Amino acid sequence: MKLKKKRIALLFLLLAVSAVLPAQTNPSASDKPERPQWLRDLHRWEIITFGSIPFAMFFTTFVVDMFRWSDNDWDNKYAPWPFKSTGAVAMTSSEMEKTVTIAAGVAVTIGLADHIIVRIKRQRAQRRAEALPVGTVVITRSPWGDDPEPADDIIAIDDETEPLAPEQNLPATP
After folding, report:
1. Residue 124 maps to a domain
2. In Å, how far are 157, 162, 166 from 173, measured between CA atoms?
3. Are the C-beta atoms of 9 and 2 separated by less than 8 Å?
4. Could you count the other beta carbons within 10 Å of the beta carbon of residue 53?
5. Closest CA to 64 of 96, 87, 88, 105
6. Does residue 159 belong to any structural domain of this protein?
7. Concatenated DSSP letters of the chain
8. 146 lies in some domain
9. Which residue range forms the structural domain that includes residue 116?
């Protein structure tokens, strides 16, 4: 049990250190600081794992309550939450510890599954990019363009025509 507590303490220490590590800068990309990939992956795992704990706890509690209900010959005193009646028998402390442990294990498994899926997708994209012939143009789309505001300029070709909207502008003729 002592070894288990040390592992948990080490995990929380690692997560705390990951939040305060200084960011490495990549001078070729931009002035924006960038963290190493393993640290971003660890942070994503942390978010997914801790975010799934409430759902894992809810479903695990429901499943454990269902098992308790079936073990006690479907007595309504042991029914799970939506079916509980007045005077329901609460879980013992050992059952609650098992429930929390199972829920934590499910949450960690969800975080690891997400990590594995993201790594596989990243490796596929890298292999696909490396398989392209030399000189292939790669267009990277981002959700927002570099220009925060579109130009609202209205340009007139000559005095006799109506002004054109920016998307209808024609190239200048020599």
Report:
1. yes
2. 10, 18, 17
3. no
4. 17
5. 96
6. no
7. -HHHHHHHHHHHHHHHHHHHSPPEE-TTT-SSEE--HHHHHHHHHHHHHHHHHHHHHHHHHHHHHHHHHHHTTT-GGG--GGG--TTPPPPPHHHHHHHHHHHHHHHHHHHHHHHHHHHHHHHHHHHHHHHSPTT---PPP-SS-S-SS-----B-SSTTSPPBPGGGPPPPP-
8. no
9. 7-22+33-136
- The Cα 172–Cα 6 span in angstroms is 72
Structural domain tally of the chain? Answer: 1
Instruction: Provide the pLDDT for residue 20.
Output: 59
- pLDDT tens string 150-161: 555 555 455 555
User: Is residue 163 in a domain?
Assistant: no
List of long-range contacts for 145-151, beta carbons under 8 Å, 24+ apart: none
Judging by beta carbons within 10 Å of its beta carbon (0-12, 13-18, 19+), is residue 111 exposed, middle or buried?
buried
pTM of the predicted structure, to 2 decimals: 0.60
Q: Tens digit of pLDDT for each residue in 98-133?
A: 999 999 999 999 999 999 999 999 999 889 888 888
DSSP letter string over 4-30?
A: HHHHHHHHHHHHHHHHHSPPEE-TTT-
